[in-house]
Backbone:
């Protein structure tokens, strides 16, 4: 035998798989969807970030002035305001930082100014960018303008654009603004602790006891997801407002403020926490409990050493999700927050109330930081999660325990009454004629066309938005997820795509909406035309809710063996055919879940679209906000309930549809 | 069958050309006028100029102003018809308005016309601050009805007054700027310090305080008279009080947006807005209109309101807005958090 070893064979050329036409198509499509995310998310966020650094400053050196003698004929040499300021030591550098609407009176630079004196003044801009006002008339030319002293006192200098950290300096040195950080974090923390605790015991009752009506309680727990987050605020006004039914329970405290925000936040975040925790609790190994029993551990000890550790990732994840939801929520604190300022409402007040877009961008940047942090920690914790359920696990079956079951039933009923009660109050509010003076029932509050806010058109616009978002969003998101999961190679591209797909979760809706203004309302943007149309609402909503849908799609796709792709390739079938003939039908349950998720959220979202709707595209959720804002609380409740019924109806249709379609397409699953 | 198709298509053609003839020019008009009034405004205008079609873009004052400012370099609107004068002053100082003296502007009350010549904007009607007082709730709490702004600082009203936040509401800002004019700069802030102790909360919208007073949520709401009259007409147990020191006011006004492609049509529209007919039309909702002698009393409107209107210095309000708002926020917005 020869003694040639493997090492003697010369290295061949590196084998590189040849890209088939299919691969090219898939990569091409992936790039298209990645571009979509780039345009609808990354670019707008960048536009917003740069806006937050765009400052305004009074450039005193850009204006020149001449002063005459008492006769008003002989003028002094021209001098800039900067020189005057230096000579008189009048304004400090920080007095020169301004907002976009800043104005600076000029008489303060002339210590002996009198509007009665016959002295005349000449003023001009030194560069083309310079602007000053006489009264409210704008002058931006570099020609001299001669004014008598009585008119000269009406001169106001305008600031010029600059780039710098000035806005952030102003933000952090204005307690009225920066206090909101503390407030927001405090509210979010308290709500998180309460919600996670409540949801944990609720989920515990459902998975670890043998109490009755579990299905009903599960339904009730999910109800808050069907309404806008500001609806509990309206319910709280009716319960604990100054004319509230249960006002005495507050002992003279006010519901308008942190108390109201916390109670409402618990309501609307409850289903999210409950879902995550009950999933975590559902996966449990009965063997651990058997071991605990055989070691004679008390049930208290078993709880702390088996149950809690098993659910810890779920608990942490739920905590961060709730924290994120509360800190980024806008509708609820707007309705019930009173004088208690939080970040999300600050953005709205800056932009809509004061037209201070730069400061709105600064608050957005401040709000994004805790949101991204919470999101990053959550992702980190999730990646630590190891499979608890091994092949040898035995699912835990609760055993009946009369006392325990009744306690759990009592607890679940209390939570259920809280959740259903809030909705019932809103329904009651919607039907009462004129609370609290005329308690007869009528449908007056449903005559939305008689109120500001968009009328019934708004309601139908919302349904349109919901359907469009569901159809378009599901197609884009599911196809994108398919490409990421099933295409070959192209690792860098797939990783970047995955990152883009996860980002929307971390971006608060208010921030996304504001970023859209900056990006799409820019006249230089070729996509400017979609501003103010239904298209931008659909695009914004799809992007806002991209991540959860993407994760649902990926989970479903991961359950499908990649073998399908290999087989279809060896049969020389194009991948797209496989996609439409095999993948989509198999994943239909997941696709339906994504559509209903997008529909429901499009119906209830307020934060992202509040900056983007126009007169023709008013939405039901925005109408709730605007009617409440104008003091029409009962019609606001009525519109909120319309959203609830629509979403509940959509859920039922979804249920029936999935039963029917699943029956037809998923028959192969059972033998 | 064929005949029918022919007939149908000729009808359709006629309809098409007819609408084409009726509306050769379309104007995009931004407005903050109440939605229910818009159709009526357009209809009255089209009686005179059937060839100009109005496309309304309506929202609250703040939103419309923000929208216009955001579109500074790429204006979408042709005309602004019915936006607060303070907002128009802001737009004027950005050079966004096309000065134009509409035919017949000399007939209007001077108070309602921009001082420059040609004027950049022309007023339509005024809305006036007032206090809505819920008599039922007031009695329950044993309160005396206030008669002046100073009364509102009385400790008996502690926690019983709501007013709009001037940073987000035009009505709130006209209150604050009027107090600064009535009581002077220093006195105004002293007054607001005292008032702040009685304020339950500041709302975002200007009509909300009156609606909240109407529903008994609060006994006293600082709002505007028109809103109060509406709530009272709806049967709410409220009195509309005109404080004796005088009340602030703002007006709705009209202007042409600089850079409009339809200048001629825009001028026709603005010409119409100053006519007697237009002012009669404004009078349905507003007790005070720009055309002298037109105004008829509006139901439930408090007496003596016209005489109580202060000599409002809009230029002061516009040029000091930034400063006033930041002063206001630092005094009351940050501190008012319940600790």
Residues:
């Amino acid at each position: 035998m020869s003694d040639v070893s493997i090492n003697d064979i010369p290295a061949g050329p590196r084998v590189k798989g040849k890209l088939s036409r299919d691969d090219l198509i898939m990569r091409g499509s992936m790039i298209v969807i990645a571009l979509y995310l780039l345009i609808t998310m990354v670019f707008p966020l960048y536009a917003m970030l740069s806006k937050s650094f765009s400052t305004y400053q009074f450039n005193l050196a850009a204006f020149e002035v001449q002063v005459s003698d008492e006769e008003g004929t002989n003028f002094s040499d021209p001098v800039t305001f900067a020189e005057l300021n230096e000579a008189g030591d009048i304004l400090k550098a920080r007095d020169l930082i301004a907002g976009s609407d800043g104005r600076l009176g000029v008489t303060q630079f002339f210590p002996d100014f009198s509007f009665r004196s016959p002295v005349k003044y000449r003023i001009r801009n030194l560069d083309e960018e310079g602007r000053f006002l006489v009264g409210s008339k704008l002058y931006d030319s570099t020609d001299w303008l001669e004014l008598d002293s009585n008119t000269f006192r009406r001169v106001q200098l305008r600031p010029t654009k600059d780039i710098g950290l000035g806005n952030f300096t102003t933000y952090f040195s204005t307690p009225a603004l920066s206090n909101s950080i503390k407030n927001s974090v405090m509210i979010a923390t308290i709500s998180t602790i309460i919600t996670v605790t409540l949801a944990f015991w609720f989920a515990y009752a459902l998975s670890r006891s043998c109490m009755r009506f579990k299905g009903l309680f599960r339904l009730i727990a999910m109800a808050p997801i069907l309404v806008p987050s500001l609806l509990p605020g309206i319910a709280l006004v009716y319960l604990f407002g100054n004319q509230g039914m249960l006002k005495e329970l507050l002992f003279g405290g006010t519901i308008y403020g942190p108390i109201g925000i916390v109670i409402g936040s618990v309501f609307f975040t409850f289903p999210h926490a409950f879902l995550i925790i009950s999933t975590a609790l559902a996966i449990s190994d009965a063997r651990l409990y058997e071991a605990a029993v055989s070691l004679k551990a008390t049930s208290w000890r078993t709880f702390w050493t088996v149950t809690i550790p098993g659910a810890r990732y779920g608990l942490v994840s739920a905590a961060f999700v709730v924290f994120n939801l509360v800190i980024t929520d806008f509708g609820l604190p707007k309705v019930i927050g009173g004088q208690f300022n939080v970040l999300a409402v600050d953005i709205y007040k800056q932009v809509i109330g004061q037209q201070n877009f730069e400061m709105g961008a600064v608050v957005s940047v401040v709000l994004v930081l805790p949101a991204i942090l919470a999101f990053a920690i959550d992702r980190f914790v999730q990646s630590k999660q190891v499979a608890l359920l091994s092949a040898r696990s035995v699912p835990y079956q609760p055993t009946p325990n009369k006392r325990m079951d009744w306690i759990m039933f009592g607890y679940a009923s209390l939570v259920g009454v809280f959740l259903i009660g809030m909705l019932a109050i809103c329904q009651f509010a919607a039907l009462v004629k004129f609370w609290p003076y005329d308690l007869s029932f009528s449908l007056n509050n449903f005559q939305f066309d008689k109120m500001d806010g968009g009328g019934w058109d708004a309601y139908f616009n919302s349904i349109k938005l919901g359907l469009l978002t569901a159809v378009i969003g599901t197609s884009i998101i599911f196809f994108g997820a398919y490409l990421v999961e099933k295409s070959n190679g192209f690792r860098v591209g797939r990783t970047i795509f995955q990152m883009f797909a996860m980002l929307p979760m971390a971006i608060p809706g208010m921030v996304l909406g504001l970023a859209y203004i900056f990006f799409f309302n820019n006249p230089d943007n070729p996509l400017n035309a979609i501003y103010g149309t239904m298209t931008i609402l659909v695009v914004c909503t799809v992007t806002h809710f991209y991540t959860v849908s993407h994760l649902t799609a990926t989970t479903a796709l991961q359950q499908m063996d990649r073998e399908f792709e290999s087989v279809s390739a060896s049969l020389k079938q194009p991948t797209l055919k496989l996609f439409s003939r095999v993948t989509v039908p198999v994943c239909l349950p997941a696709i339906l879940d994504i559509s209903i998720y997008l529909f429901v959220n499009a119906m209830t979202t307020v934060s992202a679209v509040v900056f983007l709707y126009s007169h023709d595209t008013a939405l039901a959720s925005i109408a709730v906000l605007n009617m409440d804002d104008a003091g029409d609380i009962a019609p606001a409740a009525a519109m909120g309930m319309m959203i609830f019924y629509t979403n509940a109806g959509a859920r039922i249709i979804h249920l029936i549809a999935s039963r029917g379609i699943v029956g037809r397409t998923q028959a192969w699953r059972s033998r | 069958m064929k005949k029918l198709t022919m007939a149908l298509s000729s009808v359709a053609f006629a309809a098409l050309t007819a609408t084409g003839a009726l509306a050769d020019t379309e104007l995009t008009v931004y407005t903050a006028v109440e939605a229910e009034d818009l159709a009526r405004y357009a209809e009255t205008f089209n009686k005179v100029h059937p060839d100009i079609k109005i496309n309304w873009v309506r929202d609250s004052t703040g939103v419309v102003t923000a929208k216009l400012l955001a579109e500074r370099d790429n204006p979408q609107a042709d005309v602004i018809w019915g936006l607060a004068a303070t907002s128009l002053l802001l737009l004027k100082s950005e050079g966004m308005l096309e000065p134009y003296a509409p035919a017949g502007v000399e007939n209007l009350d001077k108070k309602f016309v921009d001082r420059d010549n040609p004027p950049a904007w022309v007023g339509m009607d005024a809305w006036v601050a007032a206090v809505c007082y819920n008599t039922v709730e007031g009695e329950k709490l044993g309160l005396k009805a206030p008669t002046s702004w100073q009364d509102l600082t009385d400790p008996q009203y502690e926690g019983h007054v709501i007013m709009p936040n001037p940073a987000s509401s035009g009505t709130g800002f006209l209150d604050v700027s009027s107090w600064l004019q009535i009581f002077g700069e220093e006195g105004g802030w002293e007054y607001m310090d005292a008032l702040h102790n009685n304020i339950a909360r500041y709302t975002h919208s200007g009509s909300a305080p009156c609606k909240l007073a109407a529903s008994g949520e609060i006994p006293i709401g600082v709002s505007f008279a028109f809103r109060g009259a509406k709530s009272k007409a709806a049967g709410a147990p409220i009195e509309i009080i005109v404080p004796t020191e005088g009340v602030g006011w703002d007006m709705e006004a009209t202007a042409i947006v600089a850079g409009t492609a339809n200048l001629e049509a825009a001028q026709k529209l603005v010409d119409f807005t100053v006519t007697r007919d237009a002012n009669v039309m404004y009078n349905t909702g507003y007790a005070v209109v720009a055309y002298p002698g037109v105004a008829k009393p509006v139901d439930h409107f408090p007496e003596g309101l016209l005489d109580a209107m202060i000599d409002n210095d809009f230029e002061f309000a516009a040029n000091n807005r930034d400063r006033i708002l930041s002063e206001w926020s630092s005094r009351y917005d940050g501190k008012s958090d319940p600790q």
